[in-house]
Design goal:
Number of helices: 13
Order of helices and strands: HEEEHHHEEHHHHEEEEEHHHEHHEEE
Shape: globular
Strand content: 15-25%
Number of strands: 14
Largest sheet: 8 strands, mixed
Radius of gyration: 24 Å
Structural class: alpha+beta
Length: 417
């Protein structure tokens, strides 16, 4: 029976080591009233809303807090300062809050974007401003522990598999076929963007979606189990990724923190950096996770994947392909050397599917520039198309962590033997 299962399924335990900050964010953005920021110590306290209101009720200041939130004159007073002003300095001692705080996270921020305050420098790599800005918090388990959803891992692997299948030599003819379809739609989309004809832009965008969907369907939806249901026909039904759970070393303290608040940075081709007023709770370098990977071989063999090791090779191949496209354009070589032993991008910098598929279909990376540029113009009205000349989009997602500007999302994935 064991041999039969081995022939049918392959199950492996995999590890993810974070090399550069990884942001896999919750969908709920926190505004400046939804966390406590201790500017003097460069820390953000993320709140459990129900427990936070219980704490304020016990302190008999819940009514005052509600009035504070409703008063437009209090916009310049962060909750941390309000708490200290209302209950005294002893009220901002973390041990007082108990369950009201689910995590205490260090802040690495150069700019606060508090227009009422003069700009200043940094101390020890952490922000010392009156306030920061909206924060995208990391996804956490019920107990507050950070984790990486299996769906994020599988999504990255799906994109890598698509790149691999598209770039095969035996698919060269189909690449040319789809590229011709893309070129036909490009002229119509460019005209619609120039004339700002929104209905025509939407029609062309739908056409892009159909082309990308057709590529996916031809390459992956090949099980012939239900002609009307692509999900049932998808060969990647045979790939299952569990959630990646934090691995703690024996030396780690029980309350060790594995995330930090970092600032989003747009990095241009000429190495100019733009600090964006958005802050991301990101998993910090050195953090390790473990997840289960299962391959149902009968399904995965349909797309030429017979083992977990082969799948990992395809992930690394896609990572090299993306870096081969990016490195000649972005002049700051340190950006890529900081990726160290990474073999995949996870979370931000993984790229949106339209861009990745177009890059894979293009004969040369530069051929994809006008196509992706027009897609971006259709999706984002304020996109500066004139800057997309060598590559599109013309900026990478980065951050500054411990004084070093880095690309986001670099991880090393390996199997546990």
């Amino acid at each position: 029976m064991a041999n039969e299962n081995t022939a049918f399924l392959e199950h492996k335990t995999m590890t993810i080591e974070v090399v550069t900050p990884v942001c896999i964010a919750d969908s709920n953005k926190l505004n400046t009233r939804e966390y406590l920021y201790d500017k003097n110590h460069g820390k953000v306290y993320l709140l459990q809303p129900v427990e936070w209101f219980k704490y304020l009720y016990r302190k008999r200041v819940l009514d005052q807090y509600e009035r504070y939130l409703m008063d437009p004159r209090s916009q310049d007073i962060p909750p941390y300062e309000w708490l200290k002003n209302t209950l005294g300095p002893q009220a901002v001692a973390p041990h007082q809050w108990g369950k009201a705080v689910k995590a205490c996270v260090d802040v690495y921020a150069r700019h606060s974007f508090d227009r009422s305050q003069p700009s200043g420098g940094r101390q020890n790599g952490r922000g010392r401003k009156k306030n920061i800005n909206d924060i995208l918090p990391a996804i956490r388990l019920v107990d507050g522990t950070v984790y990486i959803p299996g769906s994020s891992i599988k999504g990255m692997m799906r994109t890598a598999i698509l790149i691999h299948l598209i770039r095969r030599q035996e698919w060269a003819g189909r690449r040319r076929f789809y590229w011709q379809q893309i070129q036909k739609n490009l002229a119509a989309l460019k005209k619609a963007n120039q004339t700002k004809n929104r209905s025509e832009v939407k029609a062309c965008t739908r056409k892009w979606n159909y082309i990308i969907k057709d590529v996916e369907r031809e390459l992956l939806c090949i099980l012939n189990m239900d002609k009307k249901n692509d999900a049932i026909n998808d060969a990647l039904r045979g790939l299952r990724c569990g959630d990646a759970i934090l691995v703690k070393s024996p030396q780690e303290e029980a309350n060790a923190v594995h995330t930090a608040i970092v600032q989003k940075i747009d990095i241009r081709e000429d190495s100019e950096v733009n600090y964006v007023p958005l802050f991301l709770e990101s998993i910090i370098p050195g953090t390790r996770f473990r997840f289960s990977l299962t391959l149902e071989k009968k399904m995965m063999n349909q797309i030429g994947i017979s083992s977990a090791d082969q799948l990992l090779g395809i992930v690394e191949e896609a990572y090299r392909f993306l870096n081969h496209v990016l490195q000649p354009v972005f002049s700051n070589r340190k950006l890529f050397s900081s990726l160290g032993e990474s073999n995949a991008y996870l979370g931000r910098n993984n790229g949106f599917l339209h861009k990745t598929v177009v890059l894979a279909l293009a004969e040369k990376p530069k051929d994809a520039v006008p196509v992706v540029r027009e897609i971006l113009c259709a999706q984002f009205r304020d996109h500066k198309a004139g800057l997309d000349k060598q590559i599109a989009p013309h900026m990478l997602k980065g951050t500054e962590y411990e004084g070093v500007v880095q690309l986001m999302g670099g991880v090393k994935i390996s199997s546990v033997h």
